[in-house]
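anyone seen this seq b4? input:
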Amino acid sequence: MKKSYIIIVLSILLPFVAYAQTEESDPYLQCEDTCSHVHGIDLSHYQGQVFWETIGENTRMAYVYLKATEGGDRIDSRFERNIELAHRYGLKVGSYHFFRPKTDLRRQLDNFKKQCLPGEQDLIPMIDVETTGGLSREEFCDTLLQFLRLVEEAYRQKPLVYTFRNFYNMYLAGVLDDYQLMVAMYSDEEPELCDDRDFTLWQYSSKGRIRGISGFVDKSRFVGRHGLREIRYKH
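predicted toks r here
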């Protein structure tokens, strides 16, 4: 009698246990599936071939930032294809430039402008700031601010600035108060900046998974009450 009872109980519970294990092991079940924040991704040629139809239909990604250029002459090899297909399958699209502090600023701007065409942008341009190029803090910040002003003049709106929390705390605290930030820190807790300033977006993972991309992808989301309207491109 006792043995029969155990068998009956197990027959009832096992399907639920198997389901729970499947859910926990699903690499695509991540933060955006369990919260109400607005999420997005950024990517470049490093992700290889991207199946945009799958991304558009089967994820909660609302926006994507695509790498367009780097320094004075580098162009991301998949930028044109990615921006065309991201638009086709319903994502809001922005373009970003990887900033090289020692490269001529006008050359960098011209390189970016040739790829980041206003008519193709849903989101304000983003400048990726991750290196000082060996410059002193003062010289680096002065050079960066010059470049940000050039971008603002070219597109008639302030760009979004992407950087890592530690990099910001070491070099940029108090320098970028007029600019919206995307702050990268890969942890379970939202980052805090040393000057306590507010920021718009948090890149919370460099190892996100999305159906339609075979490898890892960077994922981000809006922080607090910030939303997509704040980074929309003004045409």
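Strands lie at 39-43, 61-70, 74-75, 92-98, 126-128, 160-164, 181-184, 201-208, 217-222. Helices lie at 2-25, 52-58, 79-88, 105-115, 137-155, 165-172. kinda curious what u guys think
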